[in-house]
Each structure stands twice: as structure tokens, then as C-alpha cells.
Design brief:
The complex is a heterodimer of chains A (398) and B (93).
Chain A lengths: L1 E3 L6 H10 L5 E2 L13 E2 L12 H4 L4 H17 L3 H4 L4 E6 L5 H11 L11 H6 L3 H9 L6 E2 L7 H14 L5 E8 L3 H8 L31 E8 L1 H6 L6 E10 L9 H15 L8 E3 L6 H15 L4 E3 L2 H4 L6 H15 L1 E2 L16 E2 L4 E2 L4 E8 L3 E9 L1
Parallel strand pairs in A: 4-5, 4-6, 9-10, 9-14, 10-12
Antiparallel strand pairs in A: 1-7, 2-3, 6-7, 8-15, 11-13, 14-15
Helix pairs in contact in A: 1-14, 3-7, 8-14, 11-12
Chain B lengths: L6 H16 L20 H15 L15 H20 L1
The chains are: A alpha/beta (398), B mainly alpha (93).
Chain lengths: 398, 93
């Protein structure tokens, strides 16, 4: 596992931040120059030692791909993969994001549009802006020669990437897949949610108090950035080489609501979770923990609550990491899987930060309100995205 | 009117572009060095080198066929000297 997150630039720092209940949300200096932007908070990650990546690998990386490359490097070192294994053609790379580097896309248009002049665009801007930028750059950096794909499904991208890696291995097409998600914070990214009134705008002067998943006083999501990368490997292969197996993926599903581009829909969330559980051959009562998508929006959190209550009742502990991390969008599915595996290894469930008063429309499920010592054998992770796209993954301890 | 830079100034500014944009150590920036073989640039880098030189010298060279025949750093210095004189003359004319 590898992670560059708003709470820290490696897995250990990230988990320490979560366990300490820290907030990564900050007031974003300079964002107030964007007229009409109500939400002036974000959860930035720190870009450290980017020059450790060779120039020819780094030159085509925007901020998002740099995060992904660093997280991927951590992940392959953690998994103990050799260069031969990475370059064999039996190792793939599936990394999703909402889009290419937001900073680079803005730079491109800022360079080109004032005079409608392309002559000062660099060759590298294209590689930073494309939607498969993170997957492509990580594959080049690590010399991966197998399947390279970039699921782009907004906030479900990271979980879809893991699910796709799982499917590639189940189908026998790859033995190992480096997979995950990456995203980059930029005022135009927050702005795209702000226009829809989906962002938090009432806590600009007290950023650490937002977002507030499931809370009575929640007012929207806070965008973050970073990357989470995991290495999936075919079980018997991993066992034969005595790899350190942290968790086994046992069920996955992704589906659409087919009803509305932005309004969450509990019926399709229910269908998604039930299918993932069915794929895993697991009854709802066997799940020890649910890592919710819950971003702190009024509608999304309420719909997810209905869906969880319908499938699991009120006995399975549920928490969201967004209160601490912000919403790392396309990276969130994988970063939060890593956080959940960390909880599993520590035997502690991390609570939902900023959940002070459970909202009436988020009641009836077992919210984790303080660190809870609990052995996790099976957990379920949800991701729900604009476009009506749902994803759910079930993992089992090994 | 724009000032024509001396050869020394052109060399210094070109070297600064190469050092900043392509992370090449200053001591390796010698006129006889070949841009691809010795300094490690490739075809993608040359697109970005052209953009960086255009900005640094306020010249337009993106579509100049002569760029393709540049091999060494010395060729590049000479080319920039020539272009700035041509474009300077064009402006004055």
C-alpha cells in the first residue's frame, strides 16, 4: 500500500493522523480572488521531494501524477515487487481520477486563450492534462508493461480501479495490478461542486469543523487531493512468494442509478452493496465495519444512510474519513481502503470526525463516534459518484 | 526598441534555460556538447526547449525549419544570435 494524503505523505503518517483525529482541512489563501466561489476551504497534500523521480519520468507529470508516482513507489516497495515482475507484461496498472491535472489544464487554457495562441504550449502539457495521466505516468515510471487503464468515474474512480484490477486478476489476464486513484486540488475543482451548492461554505473561518459527514450541521463537501495505491496480486502467487498479504478482496460491484446525474439514489446504492456482498458470498450480518462514502452533503449522506440501514440494519459500525481528510475525489476510494486496512491491522475503528449531532435523516445506523477497539474480519467500502455511479468493495482479513 | 544581446549574454541565457528547464549541470553546458547525445534531451524536450527559448529571448522560432539542423550547443548559440538579429532587423524595418 502507498499513500500521499492531506494527513501525511505515507501510509504511516496518514494512519497516525486518522487515529489522532486530526483535520487536514485548511483555509485556502488566494481562493477568494475567484468571484462566485463560496467555499474557501480545502485539504491539500504536501508534495515532497518530487525531484527523487527522474526528470524524464517527471516531466510529463502534473501534481496529481506526482502524488500517484510517489504512492505507487511506496506500494511496490511495500509489496516487495521486483523490476522483472513489474516489466513482465503480467503486471498491470489501473489508476483512476476525475480528469487530468487540474492545475495543468488551467495553465494550458491560461496560456492559450488570451490571444488564441498555441505557440507557447509545451509538449508536456498534453501528458499532464489527459484523463489517463496518472495511470500512464505511473506505468512509465515503474516500467509496467501489462494492462494500463484509467477508470474515470469522478469520486468512484479509485474504487473502480481496484475493482477493475480485481477483475483482471480473476479473469487471468494479469497476475499483479498496481491500482488506485489520484486527484489534485484546485479552485476550479472545488468550483465545479460549488456551482451545484454541494460544497461546504459556512465554515471558511473554522475550517477544521468541516466537512461534517452525517452531522445535523453539515453543509457540503470539502475537496482534497492526493493518491492511494494498492498492489493486488493473485492469491496463490502471493502465497507462493510469501508476500505480505494485508487483505483479500472478495467482492466488488459497480452500477449506475440511471436516474439523475447528481442526486444520489438509495435504491441503486442498495443494489450495489447487495451485489458486492453476493459476489463475496457474505451475509450483511458478517460485515464488521462499513467505510462510508459520506462526504458531508445534505442529500448524499441521507441517501447512504437509508441504503446502509436497509441492507445492514443498525448493528454494523459505520464511519466516514471525509471529516478528517476532506473528499479526495477520484483518490478517495483507494485512500480510504488503505485507511480501513489500517484500522483492521490496528484493531481500532476510527470515528467520523466532526460528527457531533447525528442528523435525523442520518439516524438508525451505528455511527462510530469515538475510537472503538474491534477486530475486523470483513469490511465493506462504498464510493458514490456524480453521474449516478456506485461502487462497493468487500475485503476480508487474511 | 529591443536591445540586441551580445554573444556572451546569449550563451548565458541559453545555458540558464537548459539548466532550469532540463536540470543540466552548468559545467556540462559546453559549445561542443551535442544536445541529444551528450545532454540527454529527446524530441519532446526540443519542443519545450523551443517554447522556453521563445519566452526567454522574445523570439518566434517554433516553425523555423533551421531548428531541425541544430546538433550542438554551439549551433544553438549561433542560431539564436542569428534569429535575434534577423527579428531585430525585421522589427526595425
Amino acid at each position: 500500500m502507498g499513500a500521499v494524503t492531506p494527513l501525511g505523505s505515507d501510509v504511516r503518517a496518514f494512519l497516525e493522523g486518522l487515529l489522532a483525529g486530526r483535520s487536514a482541512v485548511r483555509f485556502m489563501e488566494g481562493w477568494d480572488r475567484y468571484r462566485g466561489l463560496r467555499s474557501l476551504v480545502g485539504a491539500p497534500a504536501e508534495l515532497r521531494e518530487a525531484t527523487a523521480i527522474p526528470r524524464k519520468d517527471r516531466r510529463s507529470m502534473g501534481r496529481m501524477s506526482l502524488f500517484a508516482a510517489q504512492a505507487a513507489k511506496q506500494a511496490v516497495l511495500d509489496a516487495g515487487l521486483s523490476e522483472n515482475e513489474l516489466g513482465s507484461g503480467r503486471t498491470g496498472c489501473v489508476i483512476g481520477s476525475t480528469m487530468g491535472s487540474a492545475c495543468s489544464i488551467n495553465e494550458t487554457f491560461e496560456t492559450m486563450l488570451p490571444e488564441r495562441d498555441l505557440s507557447n504550449l509545451t509538449a508536456m502539457q498534453f501528458f499532464k492534462c489527459v484523463s489517463h495521466s496518472a495511470a500512464m505516468n505511473v506505468a512509465q515510471y515503474l516500467n509496467i508493461a501489462g494492462v494500463v487503464m484509467a477508470p474515470s468515474a469522478a469520486c468512484a474512480s479509485g474504487l473502480q480501479a481496484i475493482g477493475t484490477g480485481y477483475d483482471l486478476i480473476r479473469l487471468g489476464r494479469q497476475e499483479i495490478v498496481v491500482c488506485g486513484g489520484a486527484e489534485e486540488l484546485h479552485p476550479t475543482v472545488t468550483g465545479s461542486f460549488d456551482i451545484l451548492f454541494a460544497t461546504s461554505a459556512r465554515y471558511n473561518d473554522v475550517p477544521e469543523r468541516t466537512p461534517r459527514p452525517f452531522d445535523r450541521d453539515r453543509d457540503g463537501l470539502v475537496c482534497g487531493e492526493g493518491s492511494g495505491i494498492v498492489v493486488l496480486e493473485e492469491y496463490e502467487r502471493a502465497r507462493r512468494r510469501n508476500a505480505r498479504m494485508r487483505v483479500e478482496v472478495v467482492g466488488y460491484h459497480t452500477c449506475a442509478s440511471g436516474s439523475h446525474v447528481s442526486q444520489s439514489n438509495h435504491a441503486s446504492m442498495i443494489a450495489c452493496m447487495r451485489e458486492a456482498l453476493g459476489q463475496a458470498g457474505v451475509a450483511p450480518g458478517e460485515i464488521d465495519y462499513i467505510n462510508a462514502h459520506a462526504t458531508g452533503t445534505e442529500h448524499g449522506d441521507a441517501e447512504e444512510t437509508i441504503a446502509i440501514r436497509e441492507v445492514f440494519g443498525g448493528a454494523v459500525p459505520v464511519s466516514s474519513m471525509k471529516g478528517a481528510l476532506g473528499h479526495t475525489l477520484g483518490a478517495s476510494g483507494c485512500i480510504e481502503i488503505i485507511g480501513s486496512v489500517g484500522m483492521m491491522e490496528k484493531g481500532v475503528l476510527f470515528p467520523t470526525r466532526n460528527l457531533e449531532n447525528v442528523a435525523p435523516n442520518c439516524a438508525g445506523i451505528l455511527h462510530v463516534r469515538e475510537p472503538l477497539e474491534r477486530q475486523i474480519r470483513l469490511f465493506l467500502k462504498n464510493s458514490f459518484a456524480f453521474g449516478g455511479i456506485n461502487a462497493a468493495l468487500v475485503c476480508r482479513a487474511v | 526598441m529591443k536591445k540586441t544581446l551580445s554573444e556572451k549574454e546569449v550563451i548565458a541565457l541559453t545555458n540558464r534555460v537548459l539548466a532550469e528547464s532540463f536540470e543540466i549541470e552548468e559545467e556540462r553546458l559546453l559549445p561542443e556538447k551535442r544536445i541529444f547525445a551528450d545532454l540527454g534531451l529527446d524530441s519532446l524536450d526540443t519542443v519545450d526547449l523551443v517554447v522556453a527559448l521563445q519566452k526567454r529571448f522574445s523570439i518566434t522560432i517554433r516553425e523555423d525549419e533551421r531548428v531541425r539542423s541544430i546538433r550542438s550547443l554551439g549551433d544553438l548559440y549561433t542560431y539564436i544570435m542569428t534569429v535575434q538579429q534577423e527579428q531585430q532587423a525585421g522589427t526595425e524595418g
